[in-house]
Amino acid sequence: TAVDMAEDHENVAKVRAINAGGTQNIANVCKELDCKMVYISTDYVFNGLGEEPWMEYGEREPLNVYGQTKYEGELEVERLKKLFIIRISWVFGVNGHNFIKTMLRLGNERGEVSVVNDQVGSPTYTYDLAKLCVDMIQTDKYGTYHATNQGYCSWYEFACEIFKQAGISVEVTPVTSDQYPAKAKRPFNSRMSKDKLEENGFERLPDWKDALERYLKEIEE
User: Fold this and answer.
1) Taking the C-alpha atoms of 98, 142, 145 and 89 in order, what is their torsion angle to the nearest 10 degrees?
2) Among residues 26, 40, 41, 129, which one has the least CA distance to residue 80?
3) 192: alpha, beta or left, given left = phi > 0 and alpha = psi -120 to 50?
4) Which of 119, 165, 167, 197, by CA, is between 20 and 30 Å from 57?
5) pTM
6) Buried b / exposed e across 198-221, counting CB within 10 Å, b at 16+?
7) Distance between CA atoms of residues 124 and 217, nearest Å
8) 3-state DSSP call for residue 76?
9) Computed from CA positions of residues 177, 178, 184, 190, in that sequence, does the dihedral angle turn out positive or negative?
10) Set 39, 44, 57, 66: catalytic member
11) What are 64-100's pLDDT values in tens digits?
């Protein structure tokens, strides 16, 4: 998910080999063995325009190399009958880097941060996501799903809530994407409809603020 590095010309072939070629290899084995496949995908397969939540079978039009290669991976999985494509966004968990850890570090170091306020989506807690994946794989309700925590926010609103719940006094300044340029173009609208989860008997993930509260307690411990 190093989406900016993926834009570098020398990395494009490697990114495609992993996200598309690697997925194809796994899909081929799943087809041969007649077993289920779970593919974790991304909101980056959409173009990020408008304000309406993206439906599971909405038109895919990636904005960057990472999104394009994940889309190509989705196409490989769609050749199967026993498939679960699960799109997620704004992921955070105990392991690895994430937005929350970065904000806490910068907030403690600087006492002020600038965060984009024109990109909207849903944070996703890996603990909640993992539970859903386990429930899902035990069924035959195949298809494409969106699995993010409930509710929407901008990155700016996310940062404000992080500092509020962490009890840290930090000045957060909202900025536009144009003021915070990056190699890979980001979608402005990462809202995704989760209706299909409920329609197929799966529980929606808890609200993102609730997930954040549980996560902060976990990393504190």
Assistant:
1) 10
2) 26
3) beta
4) 119
5) 0.94
6) eeeebeebeebbebbeebbeeeee
7) 16
8) helix
9) positive
10) 66
11) 999 999 999 999 999 999 999 999 999 999 998 999 9
